[in-house]
Amino acid sequence: MQCATHPNIETELACSRCGKAICPRCMVQTPVGARCRECAQVRRIPTYNISAGIFARAIGGALVGGVVVGFAWWFFYVANFGFFAILFGLAAGYAIGEIVSVAANRRAGPPLQAIAVAGVALAYIVRVALIMSASGAGIDFLRIDLWGPLAAIAAGFVAAGRLR
């Protein structure tokens, strides 16, 4: 027999439902035997099935969440040293991840993880811009801000983990 999809491949396999000849590349193993792709009805898990509208809402949520969390991060800058900076980073990452998750109807997946991490990056940029404009420190601030980047990295991991 020749495979129905790949006519140059000889095979002895057939779909257990419709009987169509299939090669090992076309075969989908199911609990009731080997089936062709049409009979197996291969589709994505609904949690990972993301439409353009959901992407737009997730991006909007990341933008709004990034700005709001960035302002909060700047507002609580006084207690943002050492261990407290990492704790605030974890909280900021969870908040942005949750905002993106709610905006995307609790969907998950790598694209939404990237959107959440971009929201964390926006929050860090807003924080740094507000600190630099308020204090007039300029670029010198970036040399002494050791805990901020570590907190942003921790926030990125938590935000991505929230959408796994």
Give the helix/strand layout.
Blueprint: E1 28-30, E2 33-35, H1 37-40, H2 52-75, H3 83-103, H4 110-135, H5 140-144, H6 147-162
Antiparallel strand pairs: 1-2
Helix pairs in contact: 2-3, 2-4, 3-4, 3-6, 4-6
What percentage of amino acids are in beta strands? under 5%
Cα-atom Rg, whole angstroms?
A: 24 Å
Q: Tell me the number of helical segments per DSSP (H or I, 4 or more residues long).
A: 6
Alpha-beta content class: mainly alpha
Overall pLDDT confidence: 87
How many domains make up the 3D coordinates?
2
Helix content: 55-70%
Morphology: elongated
Q: Report the major sheet.
A: 2 strands, antiparallel
Query: Strand tally, please?
Result: 2
- Extract low-pLDDT stretches: none
Salient structural properties:
single chain; 164 residues; mainly alpha; two-stranded antiparallel sheet; 6 helices; 2 strands
